[in-house]
Design a protein that fits this description.
The structure holds two protein chains of two kinds. Chain A is α/β, with parallel strands linked by helices. Chain A contains 13 helices and nine strands. Chain A has a five-stranded parallel β-sheet. Chain A has a four-stranded parallel β-sheet with strand order 2-1-3-4, sandwiched between helices. In chain A, strand 5, helix 6 and strand 6 form a beta-alpha-beta unit. The longest helix of chain A is centred in the C-terminal third of the chain and has 27 residues. The two termini of chain A are 38 Å apart. Chain B has one domain: Rossmann fold (3-Layer(aba) Sandwich). The termini of chain B are close together. In chain B, helix 1 crosses helix 2. The chains are: A alpha/beta, B alpha/beta. At the A-B interface, helix 1, helix 12 and helix 13 of A face helix 3 of B.
C-alpha cells in the first residue's frame, strides 16, 4: 500500500507509517534520537527546539506507555501540549471523527498525534487537515514510532541493523507493531522471520519479504533478536487459540526455546506483557531482556520524530520573515 | 552559488602561531586550569577547541577540560523554513559547568546568533562563574550585542563575503580564506 502522504525521500511532513519510508529516513531518525537520548540523561532535560509549537495528543483508544512517552517527548522539546481521550471528549456525545478533528484544527494546532482503533484514521486526517499528523497506532495497521524505537534499541544493542536475524513471534495478523516493524526492518536490510499459530499469520505475509514459521523453535534458531508480541485478548476474544496455557506451551518464550538463539540474543516486547502467556518471568526480567530499554528509547525516538516533523512543517510553510541576513545567519551556523 | 577566492587571511604557518597566542590568552584570562572548561561550538569550533587545548597543554604541561556543544535545538532561525540542520553531539565534562570558567570557542564570529544560541545551550548545564568567547576570525557585521574576548584575526567584510576556516581535521589545508559570492545573471540568483 503506497502512501503519497508519507515521507518518500523528502522532509517528514507526517509520520503515518513505515510503509514506503526509505532506509535513509529511518537512519536519520535513529541518528537524531541518539542525541535526544543524551538530553534525557542530563540534569536539565529540556531544549527549546519546539517552543511556540502546539501539539494535540488525540488518543481515541486506551494507551499508557505511548501517551506518556509522547507527552514527555513533547515536554523535553518545549512544545505546548494538550491531550484528550474519548471519556473526556465530545466523541462520547456522537460527534464524527472528521467533525472532532475539524474542531480541533480550528484551535490551530501544529502537530496532531493520533491513536485510533480505525485503520487509516491518521491518513484520513492528514488529508483532511492542514496540521502535521503523527500516527501513534491505528487499529491493526501501523504503529511507526514503536517500530522505530525497536529499531533504535536493536541498533543500540547490536551496533548495526543490516544482516541481523530477527524473529517476530505471536499474533502477527492483529499486530500493528509487527506490521510497522516488518516494513522498517526489511527496509533496513534485516532478515525478518515471523512465527505464530496459523490462525495468527495473515495470508500473503511472505510477500512483505519475511520468512514465515508456524512453530517457534525453528524461527528462533540462530536469531540475534527475539521479539514477542502481546496476545491481544481485548481484540480477539478467545477465538484464535484454545487457551492461554496451551498458547504458552507452543508459542511462549521459555529458556529452552531461547537457548536455540544466538548466545548474545536480546529479547524484546512492546508491552504490556502477559506473563506466562507469551513470555516466561525469567526471561522478561532476565539479563537478555531489553524491554525497559525499549520504553526509555521510545521517548528519544519520539523526540526525534516530532523534531523532524516540525522542521518539515516549517520548511513547507517556507516563511521568509528573517530579512536579508537570514541566509548569512544560516551559514554562520553551519 | 559560486564562491570566488579573494584572499587567504591565515595560512598554515600563521595558523599555528595564532592558535598558540589564543592558548596563552586563554590561560591569562582564566583563573587556573583546574576551573577551566573549553567548549567548542559544533562543528567549526570543535577542532579549533581541541587545538587550543593541545597548545595549552604544551605551555602548561596540563590539559584543560574540554567539550563540545551543538546548537541545532537552540537556533532562532527554525521558523525561517531553512534546510534542516542535523543535530550533532553535545558533550560537557560531568554534564555541568556550575562555578566554572568556560571559554566558548568558534571558528568565525559573524552575526552573533550562533553565540547567542550556544550561550543558551551552555546555561542549561548550570551557572558558570564566567563565560569568555574565543574566535579564530572576527569578521564583523554583528546583529546581536556580542563581542569576543580572545580573537585570532580581525577582518572587515561585506555581506557578499564568506569566511571559511579550513582545518585539516575537516578535510582542509589549515588555512582561513575570504571568499566572495558570485551572483551574476547566469547564476540565476540565490
Amino acid at each position: 500500500m503506497m502512501d503519497p502522504m508519507n515521507a518518500g525521500g523528502g522532509p517528514l511532513r507526517h509520520l503515518l507509517g513505515l510503509d514506503n519510508v526509505p532506509a535513509e529516513t529511518i537512519q536519520l531518525i535513529l541518528d537524531q534520537a541518539i542525541h535526544m537520548k543524551d538530553i534525557m540523561s542530563r540534569p536539565f532535560k529540556k531544549v527549546p527546539a519546539m517552543r511556540g509549537t502546539t501539539v494535540v495528543n488525540f488518543f481515541v483508544e486506551p494507551s499508557t506507555r505511548t501517551r506518556i512517552s509522547f507527552a514527555l517527548a513533547e515536554k523535553h522539546l518545549s512544545a505546548d501540549t494538550v491531550s484528550f481521550s474519548p471519556s473526556t471528549s465530545s466523541l462520547s456525545k456522537g460527534e464524527t471523527l472528521l467533525d472532532t478533528a475539524r474542531n480541533l484544527e480550528a484551535m490551530q494546532p501544529d502537530i496532531l498525534v493520533i491513536r485510533h482503533r480505525a485503520t487509516g484514521a491518521p491518513h484520513f486526517l492528514a488529508r483532511a487537515l492542514n496540521c502535521s499528523v503523527v500516527n501513534a497506532g491505528d487499529g491493526i495497521h501501523e504503529h511507526p514510532t514503536q517500530a522505530l524505537l525497536d529499531l533504535f534499541t536493536i541498533r543500540e544493542s547490536k551496533g548495526r541493523l543490516a544482516g541481523l536475524k530477527v524473529v517476530i513471534a505471536g499474533d502477527i495478523a492483529h499486530s500493528r507493531v509487527a506490521r510497522s516493524n516488518i516494513f522498517g526492518m526489511v527496509s533496513c536490510g534485516i532478515d525478518v522471520r515471523v512465527a505464530g499459530p496459523r490462525t495468527m499469520l495473515p495470508q500473503g505475509i511472505e510477500n512483505l519479504g519475511v520468512k514465515v514459521f508456524d512453530r517457534l523453535e525453528p524461527a528462533v534458531e540462530g536469531a540475534d533478536v527475539v521479539m514477542m508480541l502481546r496476545i491481544q485478548r481485548e481484540r480477539l476474544g478467545e477465538a484464535l487459540f484454545p487457551s492461554a496455557r496451551e498458547y504458552f506451551r507452543f508459542f511462549g518464550l521459555t529458556n529452552d526455546v531461547l537457548s536455540l538463539a544466538d548466545k548474545d540474543a536480546i529479547v524484546m516486547h512492546p508491552g504490556p506483557i502477559n506473563r506466562c502467556v507469551e513470555i516466561d518471568h525469567d526471561i522478561a526480567d532476565g539479563p537478555r531482556s531489553v524491554i525497559l530499554d525499549q520504553v526509555t528509547n521510545g521517548i528519544a525516538v519520539r523526540m526525534a520524530v516530532l523534531h523532524l516533523v516540525n522542521q518539515a512543517r516549517l520548511e513547507a510553510r517556507g516563511v521568509g520573515t528573517g530579512g536579508p541576513t537570514s541566509v548569512e545567519a544560516m551559514e554562520e551556523g553551519t | 552559488m559560486q564562491l570566488v577566492n579573494e584572499r587567504i587571511l591565515i595560512d598554515a604557518t600563521a595558523l599555528g602561531r595564532v592558535v598558540r597566542r589564543m592558548a596563552v590568552e586563554t590561560i591569562e584570562k582564566s583563573e587556573g586550569l583546574d576551573n577551566l572548561v573549553l567548549v567548542g561550538i559544533h562543528t567549526g569550533g570543535v577542532h579549533l577547541c581541541e587545538r587550543i587545548a593541545n597548545a595549552i597543554e604544551e605551555v602548561e604541561g596540563e590539559r584543560p577540560n574540554s567539550g563540545r556543544i551543538d546548537i541545532t535545538l537552540y537556533r532562532d532561525d527554525a521558523f525561517l523554513g531553512l534546510p534542516r540542520p542535523v543535530i550533532g553531539e553535545t558533550r560537557i565534562p560531568n554534564d555541568s559547568i556550575a562555578g566554572k570558567t568556560v571559554v566558548l570557542v568558534d571558528d568565525v564570529l559573524f552575526t552573533g546568533r550562533t553565540v547567542r544560541a550556544a550561550l543558551n545551550a551552555l546555561l542549561d548545564f548550570g551557572r558558570p562563574s564566567k563565560i569568555l568567547l574565543a574566535v579564530l576570525v572576527d569578521r564583523g557585521r554583528r546583529e546581536l550585542p556580542v563581542q569576543a574576548d580572545i580573537v585570532g584575526y580581525n577582518v572587515t567584510t561585506g555581506p557578499m563575503h564568506v569566511v571559511e576556516a579550513e582545518l585539516k581535521e575537516s578535510g582542509g589545508t589549515d588555512q582561513v580564506v575570504l571568499y566572495k559570492r558570485r551572483t551574476d545573471a547566469q547564476e540565476g540568483g540565490a
